[in-house]
Hints:
Elements: H1 2-5, H2 12-19, H3 23-35, E1 40-44, E2 47-51, H4 59-72, H5 76-103, H6 107-115, E3 133-137, H7 143-148, E4 154-159, H8 162-171, E5 178-182, E6 195-201, H9 210-220, E7 221-232, H10 239-244, H11 253-262, E8 269-272, E9 284-290, H12 342-345
Parallel strand pairs: 3-4, 3-6, 4-5, 6-7
Antiparallel strand pairs: 1-2, 7-9, 8-9
Helix pairs in contact: 2-5
Amino acid sequence: MLAVLEGQEATVSELCDVLQLPQSTVSRHLKTLSDAGWVSSRRDGTSRLYELSPEDLPPVARKLWMVVRDAMAGTPRARQDQQRLARVLALRPTASQEFFASAAGQWDRLREELFGPASLVRPLAALVDERWVVGDLGCGTGQVSELLAPFVHRVIAVDASREMLQAARARLRAWPGVELRRGSLERLPIDDGALDLALLVLVLHHVADPGAVLGEAARTLKPGGHVMLVDMLPHDREDYRQTMGHVWLGFDERQVARTLGEAGFGVPRWHALPPDPRAKGPTLFVARAERLAPGGRRGAGHRRTTVPSSPATAGGPLPAEPAHTSEPTEGAAPSASPPHPLESAATSAPEGAGA
């Protein structure tokens, strides 16, 4: 029994199969060995796993075990026990495979019920460099800041709405590394080159001049830093203007790439996110681009990312930009049927807004 348990955990039922002994005999021997300190055990659900760890034995007992083990190692019974042990251990992944085969169609729902809908997304924030300072621009109630706070050096969360910041403060009180600042996205209360990453998550469709906002984001980033945008693809939900204060009805890849370039960023990596069948809103995209150093050079240690071309989805020529506004990003009063912002907005951003 000790030879089977050396360096290998096993349950009572597994030991019965390996040693070909009844359960009562195995349990009796395990109790004697446990009481004498020869084996350790731990609970695993409804089972208990037993193991012999020679390094945990007293010196005299360890020497005694090594003598006994070497003496019995070549016996037929020991070889047969090891063969049966190998078969028993091989059945463990088989049981797991049988579970996944039977649960494949329901696995996503089961995992969500066990661990929550964000169980796969939240851990991915650990991929962010722990030394980074991140700007959550248009932070709203602080949901994104809360996600990043455990994994980065500091988060600077900015919003123009006093009510949104109050909600964020309540959410983020446990995270001293998050600084909440009230200010306009067109005039960010952040020093030049202070950020490693600037996030604009579902923000640009609320602002009158996206080009100016991206220019401000570029100003606050270090050369080689990145901006990440999450927003809606072009859509026709006109009611969003009245119900949620949307100024723009989505953006397409070509417009995002051009405006980022005019704001001082390199070629973005752009990806349309797969629609969630439970979601009622338009499809989202994510775009990430590097802030170029003066003269258009890329920051040290960053690799150029190319984006495959795709046709514009907004349709029609791009008109002139709307009038600039400095109203808060959340709940901003919409203008009547405003033109699309992106290709022209960055070209006439307010003085001092660009990188």
